[in-house]
Design brief:
Length: 263
C-alpha cells in the first residue's frame, strides 16, 4: 500500500509506530521498500554520508535533486521526503521555487529546518500543494549560529521555544514533525500536544515514529557514531573484508577462477 501523509496521520491515531530511514540512492530505497519502511528521507545528511562534507551546510540543490531522483526511481511504497538544503528556503519565493524542483524530481513532500521563523515558508508551500515535514530541536543547518550540535529542551526557555516552534509549524500546516536531539520527556510532551505525527531522532521512545541516518545504523560510517544511533549491522567491516579478499585473490591469481571465465 502506498504510504501517504494521510496514512501517517492515521498511524498516529491508531498508535502504530512510523518507521523512517534516510536513503540517498536507488538500490537502498528498493531494499528499504522490501521490508516496508514507511517514510524514506533523502536527507541533506547525504553531505556527510555520501559526499564527504564535514556538515550539511555545503549540500546544494543540485545534489539534493540528483539523490532525490535516484531514490524516486525506486518507486517505493514509502513516502519519499526530500530535505531542502541550507539557504534554499531563506525567503518564501526561494522556498516555493526550490521545493517545486524537489517535487518535480520525484519527492512527495519536503522537509525544512526551523520553527516560528520558517512558518511563513511552510504556509506558502502547503497553500501551493506541497506537503511539508517540519524539523525542530537540534538543527544541523544552524550549527554556525548555535555553536554546534546541542541537545535541546534542557532549560525552561528551550522547552518553551520548542513548544512555540511545534505549534507554529502545526498552525502553518505541516503534516508531521521531526524532533531531533530533544530531551525525551519534552519530545513526549510535544508528541502528545500536537495532532500530527512526530518522528524522533535522539528524542526518546515517546515519539510517534523514529528515523535514523541509514549509514549510522548500518555501521557504514565507523569514524563516528552518534549516541542516539543504534548499529544494526557492521557493513564497513564487511566491505573491508570483501575488498581485502578480492585484492588478495587478484594478487595471488585465485580470481578469476574457471567458473568466472567464458569458454
Ligand atoms: O538529513 C537528515 O538525515 C535528517 C535526519 C537527521 C532527520 O534531517
Amino acid at each position: 500500500m502506498k504510504i501517504t501523509i494521510h496514512e501517517l496521520r492515521q498511524m498516529k491515531q491508531r498508535g502504530e509506530k512510523i518507521v523512517a530511514l534516510t536513503a540517498y540512492d536507488f538500490f537502498t530505497a528498493r531494499i528499504m521498500d522490501e521490508v516496508g519502511i514507511h517514510l524514506i528521507l533523502v536527507g541533506d545528511s547525504v553531505g556527510m554520508a555520501v559526499l564527504g562534507y564535514e556538515n550539511t551546510l555545503r549540500v546544494t540543490m543540485e545534489e539534493m535533486l540528483h539523490h532525490t531522483r535516484a531514490v524516486a526511481r525506486a518507486k517505493p511504497q514509502a513516502l519519499v521526503v526530500a530535505d531542502m538544503p541550507f539557504l534554499s528556503y531563506a525567503t518564501v519565493e526561494q522556498a516555493l521555487q526550490n521545493a517545486g524542483r524537489l517535487i518535480q524530481a520525484g519527492a512527495e513532500a519536503v522537509k525544512l529546518e526551523g520553527g516560528v521563523t520558517v512558518a511563513p515558508q511552510v504556509r506558502a508551500l502547503v497553500a501551493a500543494g506541497i506537503p511539508v515535514l517540519g524539523h525542530i530541536g537540534l538543527l544541523p543547518q544552524s550549527i554556525l549560529e548555535t555553536g554546534g550540535y546541542k541537545v535541546q529542551g534542557r532549560t525552561e526557555a528551550s522547552v518553551r521555544a520548542l513548544q512555540d516552534d511545534a505549534l507554529a509549524l502545526v498552525e502553518a500546516g505541516v503534516f508531521g514533525l521531526v524532533l531531533e536531539g530533544i530531551v525525551s520527556s519534552v519530545a513526549g510532551a510535544i508528541t502528545r500536544a500536537v495532532p500530527v505525527p512526530t518522528i524522533g531522532i535522539g528524542a526518546g521512545r515517546d515519539c510517534d515514529g523514529q528515523i535514523l541516518v541509514s549509514n549510522d545504523m548500518l555501521g557504514l560510517f565507523t569514524w563516528f557514531t552518534p549516541k542516539h544511533a543504534k548499529r544494526y549491522a557492521n557493513l564497513a567491516e564487511e566491505m573491508r573484508r570483501a575488498f581485502a579478499a578480492y585484492k588478495k585473490e587478484v594478487s595471488d591469481g585465485t580470481f578469476p577462477g574457471y567458473e568466472h571465465a567464458f569458454r
